Amino acid sequence: MAFSPLVDQLLDALRVLPGVGPKTAQRMAMQVLERDREGGAQLARILARAVEEVGYCARCRTLTEQTFCELCESPRRDDQLLCIVESPADMLAIEEAGGYRGRYFVLHGHLSPLDGIGPDDLGLDDLDTLIKDAAIDEVILATNPTVEGEATAHYLAQQLKPRGIRLSRLAYGVPMGGELEYVDGGTLSRAFMGRQPFNE
Amino acid sequence: MAFSPLVDQLLDALRVLPGVGPKTAQRMAMQVLERDREGGAQLARILARAVEEVGYCARCRTLTEQTFCELCESPRRDDQLLCIVESPADMLAIEEAGGYRGRYFVLHGHLSPLDGIGPDDLGLDDLDTLIKDAAIDEVILATNPTVEGEATAHYLAQQLKPRGIRLSRLAYGVPMGGELEYVDGGTLSRAFMGRQPFNE
Questions:
Q1: Has residue A1 got a pLDDT over 60?
Q2: CB of B152 within 8 A of CB of B124?
Q3: Which of A39, A101, A182, B132 is surrounded by the most beta carbons within 10 Å?
Q4: B140 phi/psi in degrees, rounded to 5
Q5: Which residues in chain B are contacts of A95 at CB distance < 8 A?
Q6: How far apart are CA B96 and CA B57, in angstroms?
Q7: Taking every annotated instance into account, which residue ranges of this chain make up the domain Toprim (chains A, B) (predicted)?
Q8: % of chain B beyond a pLDDT of 90
Q9: Backbone dihedral angles phi then psi of residue A179, each to the nearest 5 degrees
Q10: Nearest CA to A8 among A25, A31, A32?
Q11: CB contact under 8 A, A39 and B108
Q12: Which of A6, A91, A103 best tests the B interface by mutation, with the highest count of B CBs <10 A?
């Protein structure tokens, strides 16, 4: 015995969400059906609209339902700085950290030959156009500090070097507020290699 | 800065799901928008249908999109036994445990005067009709072993006693497979009070 066919379909459909197993799906379905139908209907409407209407910004490729995202439309950003990130969530994290005032470009992934993800999938044509059109002075390669992120940064560097643009990569080192005791060895040795003169 | 308005609306809408905070909502939205639009569209369609079409079984009040649920339609259940539970999830748990072959009635909650949940909200009129129409021999009060579940069981017992129906309550005691060391005091003393003759 199980729930009714439609409730069972709902349990299955909820499992597309990350971290949702059978028990969580059941709890979610019961919440929506037993306690918050209006919230469920609202979620269904907005989810349907979002998967239909949200596309990529024509300039930076972040997620937006407009042609250009809010940040690309803003006149108050520095056009000479371009930060390349793997995902819209990375872009948001950098914005929330504050301090960076340049533009962005979102790859929506990283190079991964085994998964069949090559340069074409990362919108590098769009990146080319963007760099040609704008007077960009420095490109910050802010892909993740993972094997794939590193490889992608190296590939991008190879592509961009001939254009004479300054390239940089985020600093590696010990995270703020942490204790050295708990920092992994790889990070620690990178922090040693990248040590800075101490100015009091 | 945040995501685009529609993506932000999606993050808000996802928070109707239990256990979904801002970070989880973001991870879910990114999964759906970046990696599985078809799954997202499917979830939106089924969720919209479910909140619209799933109602209560006309007999036992469990969740179903039919007039009667599968279990009420089954001719192979014992009509003389009725088990009253608080939720469709409780009913499913009992079915999955196996062994019980009677019918069910789902209250969709428990008496809770402070939350304004009275007898009318628990479908007790439907329960009356059901008990009158069927030749029920025994009613098992399987509300939760919580303060509210107990109060609800007592109220139901008061209502059903005058009809001369046999009433029972699930046994309290130590859970199978546990260690006594970790069983709470309340459960242990109930298990002592309810001790059974030991037949080898």
A1: no
A2: no
A3: A39
A4: -100, 115
A5: 1
A6: 20
A7: 80-175
A8: 68
A9: -110, 135
A10: A25
A11: no
A12: A6
- If one looks up domain A77-169 in CATH, what number appears? 3.40.1360.10
Question: Average pLDDT of chain B?
Answer: 92
User: What tens digit of pLDDT does each residue of B78-133 get?
Assistant: 999 999 999 999 999 999 988 899 999 999 999 998 888 888 889 998 898 888 88
What is the C-alpha separation between A139 and A157, in angstroms, rounded?
Answer: 9
Task: Report ipTM (2 d.p.).
Answer: 0.84
Assess B93–A contact: CB distance below 8 Å, yes or no: no
**What CATH fold (topology level) applies to the domain B76-169?**
Dna Topoisomerase Vi A Subunit; Chain: A, domain 2 (3.40.1360)
Listed by start position, the domains of chain B span 76-169
Q: Which two tokens stand for residue A83?
A: 């930060």
Residue given tokens 């037993």 in the structure block: A34
- Angle at which helix A5-14 crosses helix B37-53, to 10 degrees, equals 150
CB A143 within 8 Å of CB A117: no
Rounded to the nearest angstrom, the minimum Cα separation between B192 and chain A is 33
Choose the closest CB to A7 out of B13, B31, B63: B63
